[in-house]
Amino acid sequence: MLERDALTAPASPALAAERDTRPAVLRRSRAGSLRMPLLLRLLSAVLAGLALAFAFQPYAIWPLTFVGAAALTILTHGTRPRRAFLTGYLFGLAMLTVAIGWVRVIVGGGAVAYLGVFGLVGFEALAFGLLGVAITLVGRLRFWPLMAAAAWTGVEYVYSRYPFGGFGWTRIAYTAVGTPFEGLFPMVGVAGVSFLVALLSQAVGWLALRLITARPEGQDRRRIGRMLVAPVAVWVVLLGAGVGLQRWNPDPADGIGQTAHVGIVQGNVPGKGIDALGRMRTVTANHVAQTEKLMGQVDEGKYPKPDFILWPENSTDIDPTKDPITGDQVETAATVAGKPIFVGAVMDGPGPDERQTSGLWWDPQKGIIARYDKRNLVPFGEWIPFRNELLPHFPILQLVGPQSVPGTKPGAIKVPITLGGSAVHQVVVGDAICFELAYDDTIYDVVNSGAELFMVQSNNATYTGTGQVAQQFAITRARAMETRREIAVATTNGVSGFIGRDGQVEWQTKERTATSNVVTMPLRTEITPAVRIAPWLDRGLAAGALVCCVIGIIAGRRTRTRTAGGSLGDPSGSSAGQSSAD
């Protein structure tokens, strides 16, 4: 159990100040924070945010997660809420500018692009300002590192859902992909891993605060060994669990004993960046050509014959049921393959000037026999909030096109598949389309709806050459570990691949290339503990953090009341609530 912070233990400030001869920046204030000039505090927050940013893909320097998150705790613990908010906000600005600066490509180049980046980053950074406030509020209580870790999860819960569906791209759980802690994913899910990574960071922050601000007399130095016990124990337990569970699986290697051969096609697109959104029929033609090439390689014996073929999101940007040329293109590919194609398409409707991003199960004899409509849409990318009000003032938003309408059903479709060239089986195929990977509930719905195979259809053409591609692939790996399901990924021009249920990349394409493969996927029905408990876990942690913040507010008011009463006889007239140097 973590040792109670010195803030909660009575001491003589005057005597401590008399004995402490260290520089003021390293002294503990009467509020329990470091005494530090505001400018230095804010500069340190920027550096901490940059450290956390480089823990994410494509840099993946994962130990920096604990440096950045612990530093934010050290900088905000015990400070005034307003100062904690400013510190957290600058932390968030720095981290997000580096981590998601790739959003600039969605609005093209020039000043408008960077205005869009700063708008999104500036708004999202508000969440980290609130995190700074939460850390300082719960820091007034016993066992605050546990509560501060819950606050991380609570803030992630909020910005992953609000506003406009949220934007949960930078949850600290994703920095644990490819680390010794990844075995925790199937047990507690993404939300739980975020909590545990935050807890490890709080243990580092707690220890650093205790060591930096410990009084120099021998009594404190002799206690250093005891201080190390709790944080080291937390690290040893979680590290051991992460490593020990990396190979844990809820079912045998062959699942239910049946396998599917899945063809993955990456057809490539002309252009790059925002230019890659055009030339619609060319994109479809590229996927037809690559499918024909794949089937030629199958005939040569290079690959086993696929049971169906996976095309990416936006492999046709024109409704193939309304455009005869596009429909003929898809039909040609299905006929050549002689097998169903899971087509990523943009469909007209359901209303005027509306569209839906869909996965269509296209049978070579019967045409479309099943369909999944994307549920989580990209605000200002696929749909425009307050469209009627904003379009007159921001004409550039017309580039978004017709308003996308979200689907209402989970991404699990039941379709007939001839497995291994033998009998026809009714198989539930799960699907997540691009941006949906960031949404816990959407992924869990796929598995809980009985999905036996897991597909991801994506279009990263706009973001090739940026960190977004690597970040999305890391999120996909986290989902594979969390669900303990193999995942086949098809993108228009990178990165497509095949991920094992332990999160290991078994096959991966390069960006801006046309390529294909056939992978073998066992059918699975077992559900991990993460899928069952994570929805309750993140809500519970968020609610618990909120309650602890309220208790922290009450505790702070009581402390100020006691201090005000005690200071009536204090000739210095100072308040014990904060240090003037803070």
Note the topology.
Blueprint: H1 13-19, H2 38-53, H3 64-76, H4 81-99, H5 110-138, H6 144-159, H7 185-213, H8 218-222, H9 224-244, E1 259-266, H10 280-299, E2 308-310, H11 324-337, E3 341-348, E4 354-363, E5 367-373, H12 387-390, E6 403-404, E7 412-418, E8 424-433, H13 440-448, E9 453-458, H14 467-483, E10 487-491, E11 497-499, E12 505-508, E13 515-522, H15 529-566
Parallel strand pairs: 1-2, 2-3, 4-6, 8-9, 9-10
Antiparallel strand pairs: 1-13, 3-4, 4-5, 7-8, 10-11, 11-12
Helix pairs in contact: 2-3, 2-4, 3-7, 4-5, 5-6, 5-15, 6-7, 6-15, 7-9, 7-14, 7-15, 10-11, 13-15
What descriptive keywords fit this protein?
single chain; 582 residues; alpha/beta; 7-stranded mixed beta sheet; 6-stranded mixed beta sheet; 15 helices; 13 strands; disordered N terminus; disordered C terminus
Describe, in plain words, how this protein is organized in 3D.
Helices cover 44% and strands 14% of the residues. With 582 residues, it is an alpha/beta fold. Helix 7 runs antiparallel to helix 9.
